[in-house]
Specification:
Spore Coat Polysaccharide Biosynthesis Protein SpsA, Chain A, 7-stranded mixed β-sheet, single chain, alpha/beta
Length: 379
C-alpha cells in the first residue's frame, strides 16, 4: 500500500506541474492582441437552437451587436415548430429589424445527431461563403467576428475555433458546472495546446468557408457522430488544413439546475472522449492532483511530503481559478467551492468507466469507438 501511496503522490506532483504550465497559459489569456480592422466580408452565422435557455436572447444579442461592416446573415434553426426558442428569435428580430435574421423551422432528420440535422437544414439557406457555426449557449465580445475573420484569412488556415470559460445562468448547480469548464476543461486545453498535444475544434465556434465544408463531406458526414465538432476538426486536418485558435475567450452559459443534470452532461463529454481517445483520457488522470494527493496521503500517512502535495495541488487550482476569472472579467463561483469541484470532477472521471450510455437532450445513446451514436441504454 505504501508503494501505491507514493506512486499516487508522484502522479499528483506531475499533475501539479502540468497545471502550472496551464496557469502560465491562462496568465496570457488576459493580454489580448490589438483588435483587427473591421471586416467587410459577407458572413453567415449559424445558430442551432433547442429550447429556451435562461439567457438565450442575451446570448444571441451579442452576435448581432458586432463591430463590423458588410452583410451579416444570422440563421437560427429549430426542428420543433413549438420550440420555445422561437420566441427569443422573434424578439431578436423585433429589436434589430435592420439585421438579416432567418428562422428555419424544419423537422427533417438526417441521422442520430439532432444538432447536425438542424445544421444541415440551416446550411441550405446560407447565402454567404464564410460560415460561422456557434452553439446557442455562447456569448461573445463585440470584436468576435473581426477576430474570427482575421484568423481565417491567415495563410494555411482552413478553420477557426475558440476557447471559452463557463458562466452559471441558472443558480448554484450551474455555477458548479461553470467551474468544471473554467477550472478543468479550459486548463486541459491550454495545457494540450502548450505542449503541442492538442489541436482543438470546439462547438463554441467553428468558422470555415463553404468550400472547406464541401471538401470534408458537408454536414451529412457527421450526421451520426456525437462529437461532431471533434470529427469536423479531424476531417479538416486530414485535408491538410490548419485550425486557428485566436486570442479570444468566449462565454459558455451553463444551465444545469441539479447535480443529476451536471453529471449527465459531464459524463457524456467524458465518455465520448474516452471512446475516441482511450489512452489520452486515461492519462488525463494526472490533471486531478488534489484527489490523488489525498488518496496518497491516506495510504502513506499524513507526513510532510503528503501535506506538501496537497497544499501544492490545492494552491495551483486556486491560482488557475483566479487567472481564468481575471481573463473572463468576472468570478465563476466562490473560491471556497474549488476543493469540492475538484473532488466532484474526479468522481465523474472515475464514473466514466462505469457505463457506456450518454444522456443527450433526454434520450439515451451509446457511443462506439468512432464516436457513432446508437439509440440504446446500458443493459
Amino acid at each position: 500500500m505504501l508503494l501505491i501511496g507514493h506512486t499516487l503522490l508522484l502522479i499528483s506532483a506531475i499533475g501539479t506541474c502540468c497545471l502550472i504550465i496551464a496557469a502560465w497559459r491562462a496568465w496570457h489569456l488576459g493580454a489580448r492582441t490589438a483588435t483587427p480592422p473591421v471586416t467587410n466580408q459577407p458572413i453567415t452565422l449559424l445558430k442551432p437552437l433547442h429550447g429556451a435557455e435562461p439567457a438565450l436572447l442575451a446570448n444571441l444579442t451579442t452576435f448581432v451587436t458586432q463591430n463590423r461592416n458588410g452583410p451579416l446573415q444570422i440563421i437560427c434553426g429549430v426542428q420543433n415548430p413549438a420550440d420555445p426558442a422561437i420566441a427569443a428569435v422573434e424578439a431578436l428580430r423585433t429589436a434589430y429589424p435592420d439585421t438579416e435574421i432567418t428562422l428555419v423551422v424544419d423537422p427533417t432528420r438526417h441521422g442520430a445527431n439532432a444538432k447536425i440535422s438542424n445544421l444541415t437544414n440551416m446550411v441550405a439557406h446560407a447565402r454567404h461563403d464564410v460560415l460561422i457555426l456557434s452553439d446557442s449557449d455562447m456569448a461573445v465580445a463585440p470584436d468576435y467576428i473581426a477576430r474570427i475573420v482575421a484568423a481565417l484569412d491567415a495563410p494555411g488556415v482552413a478553420a477557426v475555433t475558440c476557447l471559452y470559460h463557463g458562466r452559471g445562468d441558472a443558480g448554484p448547480w450551474s455555477r458548479l458546472a461553470a467551474m468544471g469548464i473554467s477550472q478543468h476543461f479550459l486548463p486541459s486545453i491550454l495545457l494540450g495546446t502548450a505542449l503541442g498535444l492538442a489541436s482543438p475544434c470546439m462547438g463554441s465556434t467553428i468558422a470555415l468557408r463553404r468550400e472547406t465544408l464541401a471538401a470534408i463531406g458537408g454536414m451529412a458526414a457527421f450526421a451520426d457522430l456525437l462529437a461532431d465538432d471533434y470529427a469536423m476538426g479531424a476531417a479538416i486536418r486530414a485535408q491538410g488544413g490548419r485550425i486557428a485558435l485566436p486570442d479570444m475567450l468566449l462565454t459558455h452559459g451553463c444551465v444545469e439546475t441539479s447535480l443529476a443534470a451536471l453529471a449527465a452532461r459531464e459524463l457524456r463529454a467524458n465518455r465520448t472522449i474516452a471512446r475516441l481517445d482511450p489512452a489520452g483520457f486515461a492519462g488525463s488522470i494526472i490533471l486531478h492532483p488534489l484527489p490523488l494527493a489525498l488518496l496518497g496521503a491516506a495510504l502513506t500517512g499524513w507526513g510532510m511530503v503528503s501535506l506538501a502535495a496537497i497544499v501544492a495541488a490545492l494552491g495551483i487550482r486556486f491560482v488557475l481559478a483566479l487567472l481564468v476569472d481575471r481573463a473572463a472579467g468576472g468570478r465563476t463561483a466562490p473560491l471556497a467551492w474549488v476543493p469540492a469541484r475538484d473532488l466532484l470532477s474526479f468522481v465523474l472521471f472515475l464514473g466514466t468507466y462505469f457505463g457506456r450510455s450518454v444522456d443527450w437532450r433526454g434520450a439515451g445513446f451509446t457511443v462506439d469507438a468512432k464516436g457513432r451514436l446508437s439509440a440504446q441504454r446500458d443493459k
